[in-house]
Amino acid sequence: MKTLLPVALAGLCGLLLGGCNLDHGEQTSFGTLEPSKMGPPPITGPSLEQYVSQEGRETRTIPEGKMTLDGHHVLCGTRPTVMDAKLDSWGGSFPGYLILNPTRLKGLATPVKFYVYYHECGHQFVGRSETGADCYSVQRGVRYGWLDAKGMDQVCAFISTLKGDAVHPPGPRRCELMRACYAAALKKKAQLSSAENAQ
């Protein structure tokens, strides 16, 4: 096993994530992200240069602001994305950058691809917590319009087949927790909309 690869647990987003500077007011094609008030735990990992050097020519680094999924721009602050077809998961995250496996993402529904990307982005803000990163991704999807009820069903169908491990709850439990985050995010969005209309 390669020494610098993220540890892939349960086949999805098994990550070693580190303490990163939080960006404020991150712009995406779906709006502005606001980082969590709680900083991530101080975990270390390889730098972008170390990771690319270890993995060699088979990786491709996409600068921040240039990453697209199915024709839509995605952005995680100033963090670039490394495309690594040898990654033994759909995605990964180390301090200051994200990793996606383009081969594994092929054929997934667009909301599922976005879920994977923003799950990895979420680790930059919430640290190691897999359920925290799941909820972060779902909240972003509701807030910026790329996740609706059909998309939530697609994400749950994708995640529910995973068995879970020491850090990942079983897929059906993750789906339950994400649906709770989805309902809370919809409620918050409706409340904000009502408050704006009342002004």
End-to-end span in angstroms?
Answer: 58 Å
What's the β-strand tally?
A: 8
Spatial order of the strands in the main sheet?
3-6-8-7
What oligomeric state is this?
single chain
Q: Outline the low-pLDDT stretches.
A: 1-38
By secondary-structure content and strand pairing, the structural class works out as alpha+beta
The coarse silhouette is globular
On the 0 to 100 scale, the average pLDDT is: 81
Q: Can you give the helix content as a percent range? A: 40-55%
Rounded radius of gyration (Å): 16 Å
Taken together, the total number of domains comes to 1
Strand residue content: 5-15%
How many individual helices? 6
SSE succession = EEHEEEEEEHHHHH
The biggest sheet amounts to: 4 strands, mixed
